[in-house]
Amino acid sequence: MNARDDDSAALSRVPARLTRKGQATRARIVDAAARLMIETSVAGTRTDDVRAAAGVSASQIYHYFEDKPALVRAVIGHATDLVLEAQQPVLGQLDSMAALRAWRDHVVELQRSHHCAGGCPLGSLAGELAEAGDSARGALAAGFARWETALREGLTTMYERGELRPDADPEELALALLAALQGGILLSQLRRDTAPMRAALDTTLDRIESLTTAPGPRTGEGARKR
Amino acid sequence: MNARDDDSAALSRVPARLTRKGQATRARIVDAAARLMIETSVAGTRTDDVRAAAGVSASQIYHYFEDKPALVRAVIGHATDLVLEAQQPVLGQLDSMAALRAWRDHVVELQRSHHCAGGCPLGSLAGELAEAGDSARGALAAGFARWETALREGLTTMYERGELRPDADPEELALALLAALQGGILLSQLRRDTAPMRAALDTTLDRIESLTTAPGPRTGEGARKR
DNA sequence: CCCTTTCTGGAGTGGTGATTCCATTCTGTG
DNA sequence: CACAGAATGGAATCACCACTCCAGAAAGGG
Asked: DNA-binding residues per UniProt (chains A, B) (predicted)?
């Protein structure tokens, strides 16, 4: 499930040979950098902060990474792993309305427990780095693509089982769900209140439910929990 | 329709007395700063860039603004004006499915014409500044609140006319629509492709249409344009 | 156990960018 | 038309931060 958080091409400045110890140090740097960059911002995180948080010396960072942008690229990959892991195991089995509603509750609870501060790790990085160069943008797009795939696979399973109408499009619905989540989290983050993300997710899930083949009572309201 | 782009409290360092010329200069600074900060980023915009773009001298900026954060606050207000104006006149009359679909087409076209680069001005600022202090966050929340109000008013009009079912919630739908737009634009910006924002908006609009009182054919698919 | 390669510490350093200072020129008002 | 306050230019300051250098310690393979 984990993606390598290497950078794809021409990345670490060092020969591809990493000692066991070296791997551990590199991982500690990425982890510390991710934590700092996610909770504050990329621009606001100085290499010296990373150095201190990772417990390494200044030269280590440049031993393992070409420069700050290269470190940021590694952080994006790592953040994707963190986000996807935080949604397991439910993210892996999103193939029923019940599972989708449970996932919704899970991500809402995740935000609530942080008082809506910080938003989505991947979304925050995206907001800051979307125009910071093609390599960062590509890494972010790849991260979201992994996420979207997980959502789409669940919906596709439902579709193939005949639980979704033939005119439903799992890919479109997966994109809509991911967009609703990201936009909802952003607004929730600004307002420090989960209402926006709940509204966005529930509205999208209600739409999906209206596309199921056994819609139960034909109320437009679907079968929301409370 | 315009909000003052002053900062709310303790802002410009200068006595509240602004000459006609001073007002013009201040406006030029905010406008130039907004353009730069929106198209690249806040952190990536140097005061010297603003100075050059506005055609003023370095001291002017600090004559009209306490410091960079104060300038950023003014930029947020200005960006809100720009975004809302760019959606007029359709944003002011979002009280029918046809108008909502037209608005959807308009915002999609806006992105397409920029090749999805830059995203939403207000959304980009939000992504970068959401955790950059309460004053910036408050200013962003206020900007989005203005936007949400415009959406909600249209939906409320529909509701009061009886065009939406009693169990529809205009406020919730307005939030969902704004979230879908923001999340959709973000994903579209990363992929340089309008598909995500179209998916997000269409899915939400279909949901709203399913809550109208004269739903036409009971297909779950609503009456999308093409 | 030797020798090459990797890893580590920590003191620089060079460039950048926000902010200040002050002298000078305008603006508007009594 | 004088003068108080506002606006302007631009050089100077000053902190900060990404990144470099080099010398020495650890690793690991033959």
From this structure: 46-65
Domains and CATH numbers, chain A: 20-74 (1.10.10.60), 87-210 (1.10.357.10)
Listed as ranges, the nucleotides of chain D within 7 A of a protein C-beta are 5-12, 16-22, 26-28
Cβ–Cβ < 8 Å for A187, B178: yes
Q: How far is CA B157 from CA B1, B160, B166, B169, B224, in A?
A: 19, 5, 13, 12, 22
For A4, which DSSP code?
A: P
Cα A102 from Cα A100, distance rounded (Å): 5
Per-residue pLDDT 10s for chain A (226 aa) are 444 444 433 444 555 678 999 999 999 999 999 999 999 999 999 999 999 999 999 999 999 999 999 999 999 999 999 999 999 999 999 999 999 999 999 999 999 999 999 999 999 999 999 999 999 999 999 999 999 999 999 999 999 999 999 999 999 999 999 999 999 999 999 999 999 999 999 999 999 999 999 755 555 454 565 4
Residue B145, token pair as written in the block: 């609140």
Contacts of B207 in chain A (CB under 8 A): 203-204, 206-207, 210
Q: How far is CA B132 from CA A43, A137, B36, B42, B195, in A?
A: 11, 22, 18, 11, 31
Residue matched to tokens 């070409």: A66
Q: Name chain A contacts of B165, Cβ cutoff 8 Å.
A: 220
Whole-model pTM: value is 0.90
Q: Residues near B209 by Cβ (< 8 Å), separated by ≥ 6?
A: B97, B215, B222, B223
| A19/D28 CA-to-C1' distance in Å | 9
Characterize A131-150 residue by residue with b for buried, 16 or more Cβ atoms within 10 angstroms of its Cβ, and e for exposed. bbeebbbebbbbbbebbbeb
Interface touch B190/A141, C-beta < 8 Å: yes
A71: nt with nearest C1' to CA: D18
Of B123, B175, B211, Cβ closest to residue A220: B211
> Could you give the residue ranges of the DSSP H alpha helices within A94-133?
97-113, 121-129
Q: Check if the beta carbon of residue B110 is closer than 8 Å to that of residue B84.
A: no
Contacts B175 to A, Cβ<8 Å: 184, 187, 195-196, 199-200
Is strand C in 7 Å reach of the CB of A218? no
From the list B118, B173, B180, the residue facing A180 with the nearest CB is B180
User: Is residue A61 left, alpha or beta, with left meaning phi > 0 and alpha meaning psi from -120 to 50?
Assistant: alpha
